[in-house]
Structures are given as C-alpha cells and as structure tokens.
Amino acid sequence: MKIHRLTRTQFLPISLEDAWAFFATPRHLQAMTPGFLHFRILSPVPEAMYSGLIITYRIAAVAGIPMTWVTEIKHVEQQLRFVDEQRSGPFRFWFHEHRFAAVAGGVTMEDIVHYIMPWGWLGELVHAVFIRRRLNAIFDFRREYLASLWPR
Description:
152 residues, alpha+beta, Alpha-D-Glucose-1,6-Bisphosphate, Chain A, domain 4, 2 helices
C-alpha cells in the first residue's frame, strides 16, 4: 500500500480574512472544480463550513461514469487550516489539508493531500497512467481559477 502525496502552494493578493471567508464557503467548490468532473453538490450546505460537516458530491472522475463522493470537514482552525477527509468515494484513503498564512501583500494557501489508491497493484497502475495526471489537472484548474479571481 503506497501513500501518495500531492502538495500545491499558491499566493493570493488578498487578506487572510477574505481568503478564509471564500474557502470556508462550501458553495464555492463547484466553481473551483473543472467541468470534466461534472461536479455537483448533492447535500445541503451551510454558508460556512464547520468541523463535522458532511458534504455529498456527484462526480464523473473516470470515463464519465458518475459516482458519489462523501467528505467530512475536520480539524477546522479559523484562518489557519481545515481538513477534508473522504468517508466514501473513489480512493481507499483521502486526507486533504488546506493551510493559510498571511504574508506580505496577501496570503499563501497550501494544499497537502495524502491519498491511497484502491485495488492494490491495479490501482497503482491506474494511478501511474491516469489518476496522477487527472489530480494535477484538477489542481491546475483551481490555481488558474483563483488567479483569475484575484490577479496580481
């Protein structure tokens, strides 16, 4: 069983308060997600996330086949970090930490994702051929979307 790690850091020329307000609002998830995933939130979501919040999504991650993904928001530390963990979905394990830090002229946002593929060696093959690139494309889209909202 291999634990994969994906890390991304992005500078945003906004205040820590504004960054937190944006990322703590679950309804912004859909706009930050590329269209090829056909992402849709199925569960009711509040204006602001909180520890213990369960969010159910519908995605078409592989070959356009729809699947349900359930995550729980965990470890919320206001304006510092929050974690979403998969409860049910495409991965055997998914732990996504979002960190925020005020820096000169804005905020640095860091994503740290630890995940484990299902299906043993077959899952690792699918990861090498497809999933790694797909995850990078998702985070690339998000980086570009956020840069378009807050250009330097």
